[in-house]
Every structure is written in structure tokens, then in C-alpha cells.
Design a protein that fits this description.
alpha+beta, FAD/NAD(P)-binding domain, Elongation Factor Tu (Ef-tu), domain 3, 2 domains, seven-stranded mixed beta sheet, five-stranded antiparallel beta sheet, 13 helices, 32% helix, 26% strand, binds flavin-adenine dinucleotide
């Protein structure tokens, strides 16, 4: 029989949260094993932020996170702040810049973040094993036993950092949720989030014709509002404002889009009718919106001719189609393109101070596998760093 390899801490999942947790536990002198089933480490970091990794946000605040318990994130975000991560970046001489809205990106490449985390792991004497398939996990007494690649391991603290379900082709799996269920922890229903939305044939045809066109828009669902860029694609709607609202939108409901956030179109058209009654409506709308979109909206609303010929009721309908376009998505592009997963391990099951399971001492959950989802803009990585740091202090 093979002998059991003993560690103080075993972390499953060497993504953002797992790497951070391993570094911190290692720095405390714990004997740490970090396992991943992938052969490439930090793939999500590598592809993030268009290859430049939006690694945190200077505006990090609990209000930027979605969870059944909105207060859950407070402790971890206070224990390890965005400034702590920025200090780490500076220590490694990684150049960075703010793109917009407090979003910090590497000047160079996301690989710099991966290299930084791996070098910190090395300094903290973390043992990293890639291509490890975990076959079984059990608890006996106060020890956890792990079977992986036909080897046996044991540890006092087991940290689950296997992330969410988004982008399965780079290693996402439901492993974390299954382990939670095995240890009798509740899992909140998961859904793709920060994901492009899809539409019925009529709107889809419009989107296809406008594919590639982007503009600033206010997108809202009930009282939740985002004002950022929006993009028409050959599959539907995307861009930051759509990705953001996708985390709140509920199947069967409408979203509202203001395609001209800075202008009250109805008032503008009334004024124009008085000042230049002979002007063609298509030309007027093209002053406000990109030409292709202007023509499409006039066509869809069946308006043409001089503005003087259009009754006020028609002008109001046209204005609403621009300032308050109400549409019903039929779904999303799903986990294939979603940046994150909504839902996950119920935060009622975990201590917000330590990230340890309340029912199972020694078992920790960190990062995206937990029911915490950040807005777009570096918040998801900050959650991975903060929750990883916390588990690193207590595991
Ligand atoms: C295209 C894209 C772009 C993004 N851009 C940004 C951005 O710029 N800023 C931002 O804040 N967030 C961004 N995100 C979100 C961010 O990447 C995640 O929220 C973050 O990586 C979550 O960290 P994690 O450690 O919890 O999970 P992950 O980083 O997903 O790591 C989980 C790890 O667990 C491993 N694993 C999974 N199952 C198993 C198993 N059964 N056995 C062993 N190992 C396993 C995986 O291989 C992986 O290495 C982006 C996401 C995507 C998909």
C-alpha cells in the first residue's frame, strides 16, 4: 500500500484564489500542496482583461458584489484590500494603468501577474502539482484524505478553490459544488453572468445587421442601472453595460436601453420640428446616433419624410425607441462565454472572517466557487485575492 503524503494545507484549484491562498499559508510556515487538474496554471488570469488582466479596481466596495448575503464580503475585503494587491504588483515592478472607472490593467501582459504569483509561491515553498485528477475526498477525525492520480494525501486544512463554471474549455468544472454537497453544504443555484444576451429572430436580425457597432448606453433592469458601452454582435447584444445587466436580469423579463443617454430625444425633435420643419427625419436621427443605427430605428418604427409631416404621437414613439427601448432577451450565450458564475456555495455555510465551513472545521471555500459575484471591472479578481488571503491566514 502506498504511504500517505502529509501536508498541513492542501489547496485544490491553482487559479487566482488558490494561488493567493497558497502563498499566504506558505508564508505562515505551513506545508502547502497546491493541486490543479490543468497542465497550464492561471489560464483565466492569462485570458482576462483582453490579455492585460484587469486585476483590481480602486473603487472596490461591498456594493460591487452580488450575493444572497451582501454583507458577507466585507470582512475579507477589509482584511486584504485593493491597495494590498496594488502594493504586491508594485513590489514586483509590474507597470499598470487605470483604463476607466478605477479599473487597473497591466501595461504589459497578464502573464506578469501569473509569473508574480508563481514566484511568490516558490518563495513561500508551496509545492505545485499540475495535471492532478482528484478521485476522492474523505474526512477522518480532524484530517482530510485526498486520492489524486493514484496517490494518497492528507491534510489538516483543505481549501477548495476550483472556481465557477464559466469557460469549461480552459478547465472550469463543477467539482467545488460537488464537494460542498458531499459535506452537506447548501449550494445556491448557479447561472452564467457577465455574459452577452440573446434575442428572438426579429431583434437578432437587427443585431446582425448592426454587428460591430458600439455606442454608450444606459441599460437597466428594474432599479439596477449601468451606463457603459454597448455592442451589437451577430449573436445579440454585448459590451460592458449588457454584461453588467446580465448578472441581474431574470429570464422572462425585459431590459430597458437608452441609446442616447445625454439627450431627451422627444424635446430635441419637438424643437427641431419648429426650427427646421423641412428636414428629413432620417437625417435628424443620424445626427444623434450612428448612421446605421439611425436608419434601422427609422425603418423599424416605419417613419420617413420631413419632420413637419410627423405627428407628435409618432415622434414620441420614435423618441421612446431611442431613450427607452424595451426588449426581452430570450437567454444568454451561457457558460461558453460568461466571465463568471452567479451563485455557488451558500455564504451562510461559511465564516466570512476565515472562509472556513461552519459545519466542517478545516474545510475552506474561496474565490468564484462561493456565492459572491463581482461587477465587471476587476472586482472578481479582488474577491479571489481577498478570500484567498483570508483562508491563507486561517488554514
Ligand atoms: C474571459 C474572461 C475574462 C475575465 N476577465 C476578468 C478581469 O479582467 N478582471 C476580473 O476581475 N475578473 C475577470 N474574469 C473573472 C475571473 O477570471 C474569475 O472571477 C477568477 O479567475 C476566479 O478565480 P478563482 O481562483 O476562484 O477561479 P479560477 O481562476 O477559475 O481557478 C480555478 C482553478 O481550479 C482548477 N480546477 C477546476 N476544477 C478542478 C478540479 N476538478 N480539480 C483540480 N483543479 C480544478 C482550474 O483548472 C483553475 O485553475 C474573467 C473571466 C473570463 C472567463
Amino acid at each position: 500500500m502506498k504511504s500517505i503524503q502529509k501536508y498541513d494545507v492542501i489547496i485544490i484549484g491553482a487559479g487566482a484564489a488558490g494561488l493567493m491562498s497558497a502563498i499566504e499559508a506558505g508564508k505562515r510556515g505551513r506545508k502547502v500542496l497546491l493541486l490543479d487538474h490543468s497542465r497550464k496554471i492561471g489560464e483565466k488570469i492569462r485570458i482576462s482583461g483582453g490579455g492585460r488582466c484587469n486585476f483590481t479596481n480602486t473603487n472596490t466596495h461591498p456594493s460591487k458584489f452580488i450575493s444572497k448575503n451582501p454583507n458577507f464580503v466585507i470582512s475579507a475585503l477589509n482584511q486584504y484590500t485593493q491597495n494590498d494587491f496594488i502594493d504586491l504588483i508594485k513590489k514586483h515592478n509590474i507597470e499598470f494603468h487605470e483604463k476607466k472607472l478605477g479599473q487597473l490593467f497591466c501595461d504589459g501582459s497578464a502573464q506578469q501577474i501569473i509569473d508574480m504569483l508563481l514566484s511568490e509561491c516558490e518563495m513561500a515553498k508551496v509545492i505545485l502539482r499540475k495535471g492532478m485528477v482528484v478521485e476522492n475526498i474523505d474526512k477522518q477525525g480532524d484530517q482530510y484524505f485526498i486520492d489524486a492520480n493514484s496517490e494518497k494525501y492528507s491534510c489538516e486544512s483543505l481549501v477548495i478553490a476550483t472556481g465557477g463554471l464559466s469557460v469549461p474549455k480552459i478547465g472550469a468544472s463543477k467539482f467545488g459544488y460537488e464537494i460542498a454537497k458531499k459535506f452537506n453544504l447548501n449550494v445556491i443555484e448557479t447561472l452564467p453572468a457577465l455574459v452577452p444576451l440573446t434575442f428572438n429572430e426579429k431583434i437578432l436580425t437587427m443585431c446582425r445587421e448592426l454587428s460591430g457597432l458600439s455606442l454608450a448606453a444606459i441599460v437597466s433592469f428594474n432599479k439596477t442601472i449601468f451606463e457603459e458601452g454597448m455592442l451589437f454582435t451577430h449573436r445579440g447584444l454585448s459590451g460592458p453595460s449588457i454584461l453588467q445587466i446580465s448578472s441581474y436580469w431574470k429570464l422572462g423579463s425585459n431590459i430597458k436601453i437608452n441609446l442616447s443617454p445625454d439627450l431627451d430625444i422627444h424635446k430635441f425633435l419637438e424643437d427641431r420640428k419648429k426650427s427646421n420643419p423641412k428636414q428629413e427625419i432620417n437625417t435628424i436621427i443620424a445626427e444623434i446616433l450612428p448612421k446605421r443605427l439611425a436608419h434601422m430605428i427609422c425603418k423599424e418604427n416605419d417613419v420617413s419624410g420631413n419632420i413637419s409631416e410627423l405627428p407628435n404621437k409618432i415622434l414620441k414613439e420614435l423618441s421612446d425607441a431611442i431613450n427607452a427601448w424595451v426588449i426581452k432577451p430570450i437567454g444568454s450565450e451561457g457558460y461558453r462565454t460568461a466571465e463568471v458564475t452567479l451563485g455557488g456555495i451558500d455564504t451562510n455555510e461559511i465564516s466570512s472572517k476565515t472562509m472556513m465551513s461552519i459545519k466542517n472545521p478545516g474545510l475552506f471555500f474561496i474565490g468564484e466557487v462561493v456565492d459572491v459575484t463581482g461587477h465587471l471591472g476587476g472586482y472578481n479578481f479582488q474577491w479571489a485575492w481577498s478570500s484567498g488571503y483570508v483562508a491563507g491566514q486561517y488554514s
